[in-house]
Amino acid sequence: MNLFEHVLRSGRIFANKDVLRPSYIPAYLPHRKEQIERLAEILSAALRGETPSNILIYGKTGTGKTATVKYVAQELERMAKQIGSKTEVIYINGEIFDTQYRVFAYLARIFNRKVPMMGWPTDVVFEAFREGVDRERRCVIVVLDEVDKLVKKGDEVLYNLSRINSDLRRAKVSVVGISNDLTFTDELDARVRSSLGEEEIVFPPYNAMQLSDILKQRAELAFREGVLEEGVIPLCAAFAAQEHGDARRALDLLRVSGEIAERLGEEKVREEHVRLACERIETNKIAEVVRTLPLHSKIVLSAVVMLSKEHRKRRFTSGEIYSMYRKICGFVNIEPLTQRRVSDLTAELEMLGLVSATVVSRGRYGRTKEISLSVQESSLRDVLLSDYKLKSLSAFRLRTQMLLNEENA
DNA sequence: CCTCCACCGGAACGTGAGGAGT
DNA sequence: ACTCCTCACGTTCCGGTGGAGG
Question: E strands within A45-153?
Answer without folding.
Answer: 55-59, 87-93, 139-145
